[in-house]
Amino acid sequence: MRRFAAAAALAAFALPAASVPPTRAELEQWCTGAEDMAHCGRLIEQQQLRRLPGLAKREGVNLRVALFPSGSATFTDVENPVQPLSYSLFDSIDPINAVLLLKSDGERVTFVLLQRAGNHVTELPSEPSLSPDRQRLATADFCSSGCSNELVVWRVTREGVARELAWRSAEDWADATPQWKDAETVVVDYTPASDGTPRTLERKLGQGGWTRPR
Predict the structure, then answer these.
(1) For the chain, does the N or the C end have fewer beta carbons within 10 angstroms?
(2) Where are the domains of the chain?
(3) pLDDT of residue 21
């Protein structure tokens, strides 16, 4: 999300269409001229509402997202000039029947994962990557300031999403993006803060160095 932020800045529901995740090039294009991340989020939402008809509706400050098999969840913006709060439709993660929202809380930007079947909500520090077996998510929250500087693996269950493993780098990273090589291996493309040269790291879930929540 930090790389995206830097590049960008700046009724009844029908069944949703297949997910079409926005590319980095699209995010940059859509958010050109955005006043802030909340405005950027709304510009992304306009595009995704067209791509995913029936999944969500924008009604003023309210974003209504269709639950499964029925009902809806409502996320309400707070139009406060000092500490604005904004939710925007970002993507649908179809394999786990979830919706991903972009959340802007003042200057802080995170993601909100809504599991449509159980109406479970989990806030994530960055855009998640789903494992091939659909059992886990990976997030990488690294930046020069204001980040947790952790690679986190989350377990996906019907009752919600919970932290399972976390790992910290010995050096400072300016940015990082996770993906999965296989169900047991996370691959992270990252940029060290020291020299700005892109690198790649592989970490297996079974190797040492991970910590578990207490």
Answers:
(1) C
(2) 1-122, 125-214
(3) 80
Q: Give residue 130's identity as a one-letter amino acid code.
A: L
- Alpha carbons 88 and 104: distance in angstroms, whole number: 9
42: pLDDT strictly greater than 90: yes
Beta-carbon contacts of 189 under 8 Å, excluding residues fewer than 6 positions away, are: 176, 177, 179, 198, 199, 200
Range 144-147, long-range pairs (CB < 8 A, 24+ positions): 144/172, 144/174, 144/193, 146/108, 147/2
Query: What is the residue type of 53?
Result: P
- First CA to last CA distance, the chain: 27
Angstrom CA distances, 73 to 9, 19, 134, stand at 29, 19, 23
Judge contact between 8 and 40, C-beta under 8 A: yes
Phi, psi for 45 (deg, rounded to 5): -60, -40
pTM score, whole prediction:
0.89
Q: To which H or E segment does residue 17 belong? A: none
Q: Do 93 and 99 meet the contact criterion of CB atoms below 8 Å apart?
A: yes
How does pLDDT run across 108-134, given as a tens digit for each residue?
999 999 999 999 999 999 999 999 999
